[in-house]
Structures are given as structure tokens and as C-alpha cells.
Amino acid sequence: MNDQHFPHGLTQIAESAGDEAALKIALERGGSRLRIPQKAEGSILEKIVGIDAARKIVKDLADERIEIPLAKKIVAAWLHDQGWSQEAIAVKLKISRRTVQYWQTGTTPTRQSDLFNSL
Fold it and tell me: Which end of the chain is more exposed for a tag (fewer CB within 10 A), N or C?
């Protein structure tokens, strides 16, 4: 995932604790604002990313409020790399399986042809 460009909020976390920590936070808290606590022990961060990564995030970002983007396409690619099926990714991210399929293949659905082009 190192070739992935993260949105700003995830970039801050990735720079502190790595891509996987940022992606775990996006998966669990995407679409919300996350307040970084002053200590890692017993925090929501510890529950999501583990104590080591939580300590790194707290060290760099304590008391910050970070907007965590949904980043569904990025998270879907990460889950796929983790061995998740298209169905499981779709359910977890609340998107259609076909959307996951399109993202993985790099294609987009074809649009209905113009009625007047066939005349």
C-alpha cells in the first residue's frame, strides 16, 4: 500500500504509525472526527490499532482533532490485499459488490447507449 496516496487525515496518521494503522482507523472511524488523546493506554486508538501504534500516534498528534475520511476505495484495496472477498468488502464498507469489482478491475460500468445513436 506504500504507493497509495492518502487523504490528509490519513496521511497524518500514516506518517506517525504507518499505513496499516491509518487504514484500520479509516475502516473503523471513517467519516468522523477523531480526537487524539493525551495517552494511548485505554484509548479508542489502542482498541483499533494496538498499543504500539497508538503510542506513536499520541506522541505526534496528542490533542489534535483529525477528520478521518471514508476513503472507501483505498480501504477496499487494502482489505483485498488482506485476502477479503468482494462480498465481505462490500458488506463491511456498505457498497455494492459490483462497485468493489469495478474498483479492483479498474473498469467503470458502461452507460446505457444513446437511443438516438441507433437510428
Answer: C
